[in-house]
Design a protein that fits this description.
4-stranded antiparallel β-sheet; Rossmann fold; 5-stranded parallel β-sheet; 269 residues
């Protein structure tokens, strides 16, 4: 039996094309049910308040950067959405006197301008790089600041960004925002075109997708207009550069030879 058309955007695949019984079951999940979803490799952590959640996100930056040394540089990959943790990160770095000389940061996404075929400039009102800098990195004391070369933001020249994942720096944590269309980062559902006109990609196929330029689902455009664009959907770019589901290739072991686990944390984009 063929999958139904999306209730939201018929030209796209999304969660509304799933079997209705599955959607109904998901809608009935309680807090207790969510806690019980933890399993090996997937831990559910609950927070009582938004403030506690944002602080936990900020502390993951600090915990990752405290591990960084000259012979073992360490970084974190972070989203824009949420952003409330970013000023907390800067404040914690300054209060703790944490020197970020050997720390790294990867931006998770950036808007893409289809007209110029480039990432949007930092002067763009919705620029993710601009938000990271203004809310976090520009607020860190200069004597503690991360070297510019250690800041890695997605670019239209994908290969240059991907190369930074293979430069001997361990990514300790990859955080991520959860979108209204159920995306992580900007890994949106795909359009119903080409080989995926009648069937969506399998989970195995989707997990092979790397850092790339993507077209964004209409729900994602609407969400970003609501949360970041003052309701003006016309100012939201229709495309973006995003970290893919495929593990980008950072080292999987520390210099001592012990496993270097990576945590993925979801927030509300």
């Amino acid at each position: 039996m063929p999958r139904p058309l999306s209730h939201i955007a018929p030209d796209w695949w999304d969660y509304t094309t799933l079997d209705s019984s599955l959607i109904n079951d998901a809608a009935k999940l309680t807090e207790r049910d969510l806690r019980q979803l933890s399993r090996p490799g997937f831990k559910v952590v609950m927070y009582d308040t938004l403030e506690d959640f944002y602080l936990a996100e900020a502390l993951e930056y600090i915990a990752a950067w405290k591990q960084a040394t000259a012979d073992n540089p360490v970084g974190i990959c972070g989203p824009i959405g949420p952003t409330e943790q970013l000023p907390l990160v800067a404040r914690l770095v300054n209060e703790l006197g944490l020197n970020l000389k050997h720390a790294h940061f990867w931006g998770m996404d950036e808007w893409y301008d289809d007209k110029t075929k480039k990432e949007v400039p930092v002067t763009h009102a919705l620029s993710f790089e601009r938000a990271d800098r203004e809310l976090c990195f520009n607020r860190i004391q200069k004597k503690l600041a991360m070297p510019e070369a250690n800041l890695h933001f997605p670019k239209a020249k994908i290969a240059e960004y991907v190369k930074t994942w293979h430069a001997g720096v361990r990514c300790a944590v990859m955080q991520g925002g959860q979108g209204d269309i159920k995306h992580w980062a900007f890994n949106d559902p795909l359009k119903r075109v080409g080989k995926h006109k009648d069937t969506p990609p399998t989970p195995a196929e989707y997990r092979k997708l790397g850092t790339r330029i993507v077209e964004l689902h209409p729900v994602t455009l609407s969400q970003n207009a609501r949360t970041s664009g003052g309701g003006n959907i016309t100012m939201v770019p229709k495309m973006a550069i995003t970290v893919g589901p495929r593990r980008p290739g950072w080292p999987t072991r520390s210099p001592s030879g012990t496993p270097a686990p990576t945590t993925i944390r979801w927030g509300s984009a």
